[in-house]
Amino acid sequence: MASKGEDYKKLLKDLNDPDWNIRAKAVFNLKNYDDQVILDALFKKLDDENVNVWLSTVRVLKEKKDKRLVNKLINALIEDNRDEVRWHSAYFLGEIGNQIPSIKPIINALKDECAEVRLNAAKALGKIGNKKAIDALISSLDDKDPIVRKEAIISLNILSPLNNVEGLMKSLKDEDKRVRSLAAILIGKAGSEKSIDGLINTLSDDDCVVRVSAVYALDKIGGEKVIKPLIKALKDPYWEVRSDAAAALGKLEDDRAVVPLLDVLKDENKYVIKSASKALEKFSIFKK
Q1: Residue 66 in contact with residue 39, Cβ under 8 Å?
Q2: In the predicted model, is pLDDT for residue 263 greater than 90?
Q3: 223-288: same fold as 1-95?
Q4: Residue 6, pLDDT score
Q5: In b/e form, how buried is each residue of 20-44, taking b as 16+ CB within 10 angstroms?
Q6: Class of 1-95 per CATH?
Q7: What DSSP letter does each residue of 191-216 carry, written as one string?
Q8: Which of the chain's termini has less CB crowding within 10 Å, N or C?
Q9: What CATH fold (topology level) applies to the domain 223-288?
Q10: pLDDT at residue 166, rounded to an integer
């Protein structure tokens, strides 16, 4: 780190310049100093009226691991009327992680009027890793904005990947295809057999990516109950669904899949044919 020479005096003066660009540049350059006087001067800039100056200051103090920053961010999340400051506060609290004394303000931010704030609050709760946030995140699965619902699903999977299948099942019927797709994938990773019926219904989803995700989930769960739906998926209009279904049936090695897989060898798509061929090689009657 730089020693405290004459240059720092000009930088400290520039912190109060009427031009926000000069103030932001001074904050950036003062990151090279560790003197407490300079850190105190930077801390005061957390009250700067310009969002860019505020952001630069937060980044520097976060890098310096200034312990005062956490409470300042919490207060900004609760009280600041600028959307950008609130959502960045939630974001940085997530970056700081488990040093947060209380997650209650972040949980409360899940009800903020700004979707970006709710999104970053959901993301932060996943990063912090406190299981007290689970119920609030489950409630966020009903958020009016799909990006928030999607982030709530991701954080729930981080906090308790095996205990939120019921909430994820509800998300299989979400109006947003990204949410439905993610829900299917995470249900598959959870490996819950109770979710098979819901995933079978998802194989009829209007969106091909969601159907691919449903096949992925059924493949992960496995078992006898997934055989028939995967065989049916071999006739899906989208080639990737057919290909993934063929691959999944190969892993299961159930003889009921042999004839349907042989029929797939006539498929118009070469990747589907390749998947079916590899799947058939796993059955005893085709092994050398």
Answers
A1: yes
A2: yes
A3: yes
A4: 54
A5: bebbbbbbebbbebeeeebbebbbe
A6: mainly alpha
A7: T-GGGHHHHHHHTT-SSHHHHHHHHH
A8: C
A9: Leucine-rich Repeat Variant (1.25.10)
A10: 77
Domain boundaries, the chain: 1-95, 223-288
Residue owning tokens 């699903």: 153
Q: What is the pLDDT of residue 287?
A: 61
Contact 114, 87 (CB under 8 A): yes
> Cα–chain-centroid distance for residue 221?
22
Q: Report which residue type is found at 168.
A: L
Cα distance between residue 81 and residue 268, in whole Å: 58
Per-residue model confidence as pLDDT tens digits over 195-227: 899 999 999 999 999 999 999 999 999 999 999
Closest CA to 20 of 53, 45, 47: 53
pLDDT of the residue at 101: 86
Q: What is the pLDDT of residues 75-88, one digit of tens each?
A: 999 999 999 999 99
Query: Cβ distance 85 to 91 under 8 Å?
Result: no
